[in-house]
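Hi W.,

Here's what went into the run:
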Amino acid sequence: MPGLTPENAEPLLRAEGLYKHLYQPSLAFWRARQPRTILRDIHLSIQPGERIGLAGVSGAGKTTLLNLLLALNGADAGSITCQGRPVRPASTRALRWYRRLVQYIPQDPASSLDPRMSVRELIREPLVRLSVEGHHGRRIDEALDRVGLDQKFLGYRPGALSGGQAQRVAIARAVALRPRLLLADEPLSGLDLPVRAKVMQLFNDMSRLDDTAFLIISHDLSVMPRLCERTLILHDGAIIEDRPTAALFGAPEHDHTRALVRAAHPDLAIMMPAPAANASYPVA
Amino acid sequence: MSTASVGVSPSPALRPALRALVPTLSRLVTLAAVVVLVGLLPWLSGRDPALSILRARAGDQNPTAEALDSIRAQLGLDMGPWEKLGHWLWGLMHGDAGVSWISGGPVLPGMLQATGVSLALMLAAMLLALVTTMALCVTAVRRGLMGEPAPTSGALGATLTALPEFLLAALLLVIFAAGLNWLPPYGWGEARHMILPALSLGLPAGGLMGRLFSDGLTASFSERWVATWHVAGFGRRRIALAVLKRTLPSLLPQVGLVIVGLTGGAIAVEQVFSIPGLGRATLGAASAQDLPALQTGILLLLAIAVVLGGAAGLGRTLLLGRTLRAGAVPVTRHEPHHGRWQWVVPVAVALLLVIIIVAGIGRDPLASNYLRLQPPSLDLPLGADGTGRDILARVSHGALSTMGMALLVVSITFVLGVLIGLMPRLAAGPIEVTNATPPVIAGLLVAGLMGPSASGAILAVTLVSWAPLAAHTAALVTEVQGQAHVRITPMLGVGRWRLLSRYILPSVIGPVFRHAMLRLPGIALALAALGFLGLGPRPPAPEWGLLLAEGIPYLERAPWAVLVPALALVLMSILAVSLSSLWRRG
Ligand SMILES: Nc1ncnc2c1ncn2[C@@H]1O[C@H](COP(=O)(O)OP(=O)(O)O)[C@@H](O)[C@H]1O
Ligand SMILES: [Mg+2]
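Here's what came out:
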């Protein structure tokens, strides 16, 4: 499906025809293992500076897709390219260039921080490991500044941080690399409302100031209008919508999207027109 | 979701299905290697039994060259090593384990009968160990359920663990059979025959498991989710069950080891109580150099151990498999605990040991300067042994040699265990097979090859003692790899070495070191057991196991000859265990 930007611009990240199957171990070992398709025919392109939301109910395959895009797992079919270069699971060294360009904000920031390291060591780790050039101390200060954390936290260990602070450290760790694209898996779930608002503001600022692209995953559609100019709906392993957020909220094409929108904005959904019938997609 | 592998693992290009096969291949290769080693034993030992067999069969026949040659041809001794190995394997597959070099009769039927006896003894011991374990965990569970988990002192568990099977067996024999006349001293076939052997075998195992479980349960009870469950009003029974389920997977490998260790302990116990079991038969075969019987005995003992170890591994996979895949194993945080009293026990015990060593180090451990079994006096504080040697001097010199040997073994095995445990897939086979080899069996093998000696005992104990530590390391590595902060490392560009040294080792070294220290008394006792069974240092070396063995015939007349070395072993065990709980603060 085409994105919003002109066709001639080279996308930052492009995925074409991705498939992922899961071979579930059958309970009886003599039976053949039945493959289950978790992702089917995923096409996706992300332009520089673009903010994209990826929504879908739990189990839709969001995390699986993310792991493919991060080159942590390999796809069973299809290809991923970043600025024209192929991306697939490889050694740490071979993927350094990609890790500098594309970074990740984990779902549970507190447990993704090594309890033995100080905040300074945590943020410096990828700078050193990915051979980032330049003054690391300055980058660390900058990153802290960007996420709005005081310098005094540099000596803290994760155990002494609150949930919101830990999330900021996780973001700072990614941001210090000045990536072109940030992939975030449910970055807001687990945060209380005031912190949530602040982190959303932070994402908006970063996108505006640094021209960083975002792919934000959420099972909750209500964050999309505030964060993302484009929203993708993943349902049962397939992308069923890929449109500007406003258009999507205004006129969802699928029953499933409609249900998601209704869950996020009850008042809005009541006034919504009936969805356009789409015969190609079986509605559950 | 990513499964970052560490250490020597197959290249990423290797298909996942193939990678999953590596442990199985490793197991098969190791088992094959052990079977080949056992099969080559007669050839490796280079002994010629023709003369002794001739004597056994026809004492009056002249040992002519023809007669000897015909016996050699009959036994296949004239074959080359590989031909002989093939012959032996072919026979095994057809239920023929060869003929005894002593009696000339087939080896297998008797050994199988003895196996049944040993299995019955081990089953009884396991039940007893289970009861002991539960009794030792009562405090940990009670405190945990009251919401204030605290490590129990474990002194009782440590003492039980410290009691070597052969010492316990001998003590029980003398107290309940010879002294009180309550139970028969030896024999087999009735339930009352089984009580003392099962106690000697089951109590040390139960002590070790009790310690491991009360430690593990306390750690699990200290986790945050337990407090949450308390607040949420879950029932005590439900919380206790959940804590047990959380604790079991990381302990199952060690429980497997304890159970497997029973096969080794059974050898000493069967020896003391004259039980016609597999261990005693194999020990007899080793001392008589009846290599076909020794080969069969070792194979059967290993088979029992492999099956038991495999069962424990299967249990762990079933309990943990799903959780690991989902990456949801919570981090166990060991809260440091402080207390001045903790220093009291190790300092007091160390002081006692130092006093014994200092008091006896200037005295002569080898000269028979006193009367036989001379009782303790001012001049001779701990009495004299059966040949009039100064027991104080012997225990003092023995302390240095036994502790030195044990420390050497522990250091080597700690390093080996951690290194090998970092490659869980490749090491799966060697770990399981050496785990399944109690030190006494390794001692039998080494002694069969090189003859009994101190270095042979060290080699034998080292050969099999790294495995529990490697298994523990491997289990911890798998757990650590499931934690979120480790699973994110590929994104941070953390390479294999850094992952190992900075992320995985720090979580692993501590518990494994503690485990290694916990095993120090066990290793000292394994060395002592080899000495006791005549597979270690030769007399008149002042080695603790030998000292005990030499003292046991006089236990009624001169109890000091046994009690002094026994007490010394118990002291050292308590020292090691209490030191390792102090170390946990780090
Ligand atoms: N390791 C795994 N084992 C078994 N099933 C899995 C595994 N990973 C993902 N799945 C299945 O794949 C589907 C997609 O999962 P996931 O990508 O985590 O969904 P989401 O992140 O959208 O909630 C789910 O149905 C889930 O059950
Ligand atoms: Mg998910």
